[in-house]
Design a protein that fits this description.
The chain is built from seven helices and six strands; from the N terminus they run αβββββααααβαα. Strands 2-1-3 form a three-stranded antiparallel beta sheet. Strands 4-5-6 form a three-stranded antiparallel beta sheet. Among the domains are: 180 residues, no CATH class; 76 residues. The protein is an alpha+beta fold. The chain is flat, with a radius of gyration of 73 Å.
């Protein structure tokens, strides 16, 4: 009976997992906020509690209380049907308190999650007991525990959200059955369901065993068939191997014949190469003789070219000496020419200086004479004002003197121009 009980438990767990995969369960999705914090503002007798906003800056009158997301694991073992069925219950609860719950419990903000666990653990256990004790018939044995797990998870989440606690619950049920006791009238439907499932499970196991035996037999037959095919392949390979060996011997003989022909061709080619080599040696000897004669003729030509070059170099040196003599003669002529040019230039400068001195002396003399005449005229102007004839004569004399001065200046200018005209001829 113990083995029967173990088989039933195994079937029940596998059936539950299969039903979980096939079904599309409803999941209570809670939106948690990992950064949720409460800010308590207290100034004197006034206080205020609010969620911490973004960009919040804490002041000295603020007290910040975090509302963390926490995991809560509750395990229970419940016996049903007078101990015939034992269910291990595991509640995995992920919860977080809301602002409304915190406002209702401001005195326990420092340990609000611990307060939630203490306050609601008994209520959750009672809820589990209530849901499981309502399983009066054995229909769930046929369907599995997936629907019950989902129902308990939703009930727990609903109860906590009604208390302003966000939560997400995962319920796991693992039933196990004891040996069949004496049938009681109140529990006969459960026993029958378990017996039916046990029979179905054993039947499925026998069918699986039968299929496994058939599979093993088919595998043995397939293995024998493969062995026979392998023997046929081995025989075929042996025939192919003998044929290949005969072919290899034939190919070996043909290869040997081919090698002998190639050897004959190589010896023939070597003989031709030797004759060709001897002819090449003779040609090389002849070319060496011709090359030696050409080198001798080239050396004679080089000697003649060298002699001719030396003669040209001697002539070039003679021409170079003549050119140096001409250059020295030309430089002497240039030195004499520069000396004559400097002498002429000095004479020209002296002439210009004498001419300027003459002009200066003439100007000074004329100036003195004019000044003297002007003074005399001024002295006699009052005396001879009435003598018009004398006055006119004086005027005429003055005009004549002015004319002489102008003629003298023109003569000096003409002499200067002549001196300037003679200078270019001297430079040439």
């Amino acid at each position: 009976m113990n083995s029967s009980r173990t088989e039933i438990d195994t079937w029940f767990i596998e059936g539950t997992l299969a039903s979980d995969d096939v079904a599309n369960p409803e999941v209570w999705e809670a939106i948690f906020d990992a950064d949720r914090q409460l800010v308590h503002t207290k100034i004197g007798p006034y206080g205020k509690l609010f969620l911490r906003p973004e960009g919040f800056v804490k002041r000295f009158y603020h007290h910040v209380y975090p509302l963390p997301v926490e995991n809560w694991l509750i395990t229970q073992q419940i016996k049903l049907y007078d101990g015939f069925c034992t269910i291990d219950v595991t509640l995995d609860i992920r919860f977080q308190a809301t602002l409304k719950y915190a406002l209702s419990n401001m005195d326990i903000l420092t340990d609000i999650n611990g307060h939630i666990k203490t306050a609601y653990e008994d209520l959750l256990i009672n809820l589990i007991h209530k849901e499981l004790l309502n399983l009066s018939d054995g229909a769930w044995v046929q369907k599995g525990v997936a629907d019950i797990e989902k129902k308990i998870s939703l009930a727990v989440s609903e109860m906590l959200i009604l208390q302003n606690i966000q939560s997400q619950t995962l319920c796991t049920l693992k039933p196990s059955f004891e040996e069949f006791p004496d049938v009681q009238l109140a529990q006969e439907s459960v026993y029958l369901c378990v017996l039916k499932k046990s029979f179905e499970f054993n039947e499925a196991k026998r069918e699986e065993l039968f299929h496994q035996e058939q599979e093993i037999e088919n595998q043995n037959l397939e293995h024998k068939q493969k062995q026979l095919e392998q023997l046929n392949r081995d025989a075929e390979l042996e025939r192919l191997k003998q044929a290949q060996e005969a072919l290899n011997r034939k190919l070996l003989l043909e290869e040997k014949e081919k090698q002998l022909l190639e050897q004959f061709e190589i010896e023939k080619r070597l003989h031709a190469e030797k004759i060709k080599h001897d002819n090449s040696l003779k040609e090389i000897t002849l070319e060496a003789d011709i090359e030696g004669q050409q080198k001798h003729e080239a050396s004679l030509r080089l000697a003649e070219q060298k002699t001719h070059m030396e003669a040209l170099a001697h002539q070039a040196k003679l021409k170079e000496k003549e050119l140096e003599a001409d250059i020295a003669k030309y430089e002497n002529q240039q030195a004499r020419w520069r000396e004559a040019k400097d002498k002429i230039h000095a004479q020209q400068i002296a002439f210009e200086q004498r001419q300027k001195q003459l002009e200066f002396d003439s100007d000074v003399e004329n100036q003195k004479r004019r000044e003297q005449q002007r003074l005399e005229m001024q002295q006699e102007s009052y005396k001879k004002r009435k003598e018009s004839d004398v006055y006119l004569r004086r005027e005429i004399e003055l005009l004549a003197l002015e004319k002489q001065r102008l003629e003298l200046q023109l003569a000096i200018k003409d002499a200067k121009k002549q001196g300037d005209g003679n200078n270019p001829q001297i430079k040439i």
